[in-house]
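How it folds
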Amino acid sequence: NQMAARTPKTRQRAQQKRAEDTRRLLLEAAIEMFATVGFEGVTVAALEEEAGVQRGLLRYHFGSKDALWREAVDRAFTQSETAIRELFVDELAKRGGDRLAALIAAYIRGSARHPEMLNFIMREANVESDRRDYIAEKHVSRFADMISQASGRPKSVYDFYALAGAMNFVFVSPAGARRIWKKEPFSDAFIKRHIESIIALFRHGWGESSSS
């Protein structure tokens, strides 16, 4: 009797677990595919195939491709922002309270860990759409706030794009570093050198930054 009484709960837990797994697989596939080829280049069928789930489950769990895209963007940006904030605390301690150096180091390391965030921006930035506005208003603005808070400077469009562009572009387009300079941009050695080069550039100008 006890076994029979527990059976419905056991089935319910199993169903919940399957649903959670399905949502996770679809989100992981969405982050990878949307960041790689963009919203318009991905079909619902391709997302379900990549996730390894049955047809129809995307709409069942998310309602639409657009709703899944928004959740994927939110997840990618949250992961990146969380990593950067945690890294900033560590770097600030390592660098004796130097906020500029800690911000640059944290942003570069976070971007290398989560380049999908940058790819989302690049994929949607040049096309006028609700998706572009969603990223700008919900996420880019918050990252600009984070830079302002970490640097102790007023929120500035110039600071944001100067820092973000210099620090991140190599992770959005790593092929150039690999083919032209024969460097692996996601290696520890490259990331360390990149951090120190950007710190020197922003603190002292071109004369102090590495040219190699």
